[in-house]
Amino acid sequence: MATQYDADVIVIGSGALGSNAAYELARQGKDVIILEAGERIPRWKIVENFRTSGRKSNFNAPYPNQPWAPTSYEEKYIDSVGEFEFRPGMLKLVGGTTWHWAAATWRYTPNDMKLYSTYGVGRDWPIDYEELEPYYVRAEKALGVSGSDTEDQSGNDQRPWPPRSEPYPVPPEGETYYFQRLKARIGAEGYQFLHEPNARTVQPWDGRPACSGNNNCMPVCPIGAMYSGDVHADHAVRAGARLLTDATAYQLEKGAGDRIVAVHYRSSNGDDVRLTAKAFIVAAHGLETPKLLLMSEVANSSDQVGRNLMDHTGISLSFLADEPLWPGRGQVQQGGIFNWRDGEFRREHAAIKHALGNAVPNETVTRRLLEDLIVGPELDERIRHDAARYVSITTTFETLPRSHNTVRPSRRYKDALGIPTLEVDYRVDEYLTKAARVAKQDFANFVRIMNGTVIEDDSGWQNRDHLMGTVIMGEKPENSVVNGECRSWDHDNLFLATTGVIPASGVINPTLTGVALSIRIADILAREV
Questions:
Q1: Which among 58, 227, 247, 509 counts the fewest CB atoms within 10 Å?
Q2: pLDDT value of position 1
Q3: Are 31 and 239 a contacting pair, CB within 8 Å?
Q4: What's the chain's Rg over C-alpha atoms?
Q5: CA nearest 169: which of 205, 196, 213?
Q6: Distance between CA atoms of residues 18 and 519, nearest Å
Q7: Cα–Cα distance between 285 and 466 in angstroms, integer?
Q8: How far is CA 351 from the centre of its chain?
Q9: Which stretches of the chain drop beneath a pLDDT of 70?
């Protein structure tokens, strides 16, 4: 008698990665269930929450923060026990954290993917750039990526790079005045400014309108021009997938032949449900995915689950320039300075990306002036003056996978469902501290060139919300969690669609790569189930 399954494939997580995988499978006729711990929230409600919130700089604030599905800023959701306060801005709702990302969609370069072979540090990917390139093309089309085909994205100013088989689906947006002026003055002294490919379409794309420059990409695009994972969650449902919300997965059940046979989830009313499938995709973020595997005691024969946590931990600079630059018009982030993305220096210190922040600075400026007891007409005048000249540079660093940087189920806290929350132990190593010294030399140059007045040039280490390495990909089961297909070495019907598989972080945002890998997973599974 044939085995009866609840679905061909169950996808755990409805963010950009899980929803793209689910859609690709559903459109090929597979029976798919998507489990999401949070709820579906309409865009208008999130926008209204933002408008009425007094916490404009808290990008999680407009989103639901339920006891069974908290945002990462909930005090006990992450128990950070290391020397660094690790607290990225993650969400739990249909569509996931891409509701409030800056939509940067870079590709890794061939050298990024062969870091150890090229520079003798870190790890290599078990696949080549050429294998992933067709999936980058599909991911860019899925997200409606706007980009420049003429730039060398390694920052070496030699040729268009990395190689592309097709142009970006959407042309780049025009440069803001803020970007133009910084590029003209700082670029004149040898700094390489690059356009940032992004998933904010500048023309109608897949039902989304063109960006109108609202400057609210974080915490929410009010019109939906910026891609968010709910786009493909909806596509998946229209293609036949079943989306179950308020469904927190807490156990993967192992059966005969070391195959995963079921997932157990719990709802907010305490109901426990067991669902079976031919294959499973865990598409939670880079902290929740290893937690689920560890609680389930699966996929960890290498003892690498929950280890090698990487973020693009960074620092920042803010100063007032000597001329009005008018930040806050257009998208919150357009590009940056890339002299330190790739080169022999990576043998000694991390790659460096300087991103130019273009968010409206009025709140930040006003808080600073009030702290200096400036009030009345002088306050109004100074807000106008300082906000027009405000420069924010957010710097990120390449991180190496270190086994001592870990995420585990919390030993102290549980959520409202009785499921452990997260414990993170994260430390910054010398590879980053050496790069930080180089970055601070750049900071001094930027201030000098712009004849600036420093507001903050010693921010300390900061989170960057790019979660990698915790279910690391590799060539051998002895030192990795998944192979080059993102398939568990231990369970051949378990795939991990998360940036947590990334073994070499580079210095660019990993979401596009995660989506490309997820589409590739779907293609593999579509042939097998």
A1: 58
A2: 43
A3: no
A4: 22
A5: 205
A6: 9
A7: 10
A8: 18
A9: 1-2
Please tell me the predicted confidence (pLDDT) of residue 158.
Answer: 82
Helices (H) and strands (E) in the chain, counts: 12, 16
Decide the pairing of beta strands 333-340 and 352-357: antiparallel
**From 312, 349, 466, 491, active-site residue:** 466
- Virtual torsion, Cα 31, 35, 41, 47, nearest 10 deg: -100
User: Is 466 annotated as catalytic?
Assistant: yes
| Residues present in the chain in total | 529
Looking at residue 444, its pLDDT comes to: 98
Tokens matching residue 204: 């109608």
Q: What is the pLDDT of residue 2?
A: 60
* Cβ contacts of 199 within 8 Å, gap of 6 or more: 103, 105, 143, 144, 145, 146, 226, 227, 512
Considering only CA atoms, which of 107, 101, 502 is closest in space to residue 342? 107
CA distance 53 to 3: 51
CB 395 within 8 A of CB 318: no
Are 129 and 117 in contact, with CB atoms under 8 Å apart? no
Q: Distance between CA 484 and CA 516 in Å, rounded?
A: 13
Check: CB of residue 37 under 8 Å from CB of residue 69: yes
Residue 18's pLDDT is 98
Tokens of 425: 């132990």
Q: pTM of the predicted model, to two decimals?
A: 0.97
- What is the edge-to-edge ordering of all strands in the sheet holding 352-357? 193-195, 333-340, 352-357, 390-397, 314-320, 453-456
How far apart are the C-alpha atoms of 277 and 495, rounded to whole Å? 13
- Cis, bond preceding 162 (omega within 30 deg of 0): yes
Residues 287 and 425 sit within 8 Å (Cβ to Cβ): no
The residue type found at 245 is T
Q: Which pair of tokens denotes residue 155?
A: 């920052």
Task: Please state which CATH number belongs to domain 7-528.
Answer: 3.50.50.60
DSSP SS3 for 498: coil
Q: What is the pLDDT of residue 103?
A: 95
